[in-house]
Amino acid sequence: MQADLRQNLRADSGKPLAFHQLIRIDDTRWYWYQRYHHLLVDGFSFPAITRQIAAIYRAWQSDAPTPESPFTPFADVVEEYQRYRQSEAWQRDGAFWAQQRRELPPPASMSAAPLPGRSASADILRMKLSAPAGAFRQLAAHMPEIPRADLALALVTLWLGRLCGRMDYAAGFIFMRRMGSAALTATGPVLNVLPLAVNLHATEDLPTLAKRLCGAVKEDAPPPALRRRTDCTR
Fold first, then answer.
1. Closest CA to 209 of 145, 157, 136
2. What CATH number matches the domain at 74-110+132-229, 3.40.50.720, 3.30.559.30, 3.40.50.2300, 3.40.50.11740?
3. 190-218 pLDDT, tens digit each
4. pTM of the predicted structure, to 2 decimals
5. Which of 41, 70, 86, 201 is the most buried (most CB within 10 A)?
């Protein structure tokens, strides 16, 4: 494992960007070693890979045949997307998002300088929010009717609003786009970063905000685009 990690494993190294190995130490002890480049997985594919490794582990424990891979080539996802780019839906969705962009409030920013007219930058500003261990779990337990992903989205929007001192702003959020597509059985990352208009109300409680934001995500796109682009409960 150490020898594997000591290699040059950058994306352009020419080395395999993923490696999994189940190592049997004795009759009751196993090691699972996995290494992958972040370009190859997302939040959907990681647990899918984990389930497959677990299935292989159970099979090997009982000397059963290795289960076949349930995954399809990522090339199928690329081909599907290329067909979409040539379809009327692409033009229709493009017009929809152009209109959405015109209606968005100014983007969230922690800079005192105005955003318009500033040159693009690749600079990354990282802010970390610390909380007591188990705090989110306890908060979610008091709101069982709110999916945890929706609750997390509401908390993030409140935090961003406080950081930039604004009640109305736009921000980009990552959404899964695997619904009804070839990507449901592929392991590569299939994501969209979509702009979301955030409007915070001083008198609104957290569950209401979470429900409203989830509703805004669902209404942000017409049904065909919604199926491709959003899933606010993931």
1. 157
2. 3.30.559.30
3. 888 888 899 999 999 999 999 999 888 87
4. 0.69
5. 41
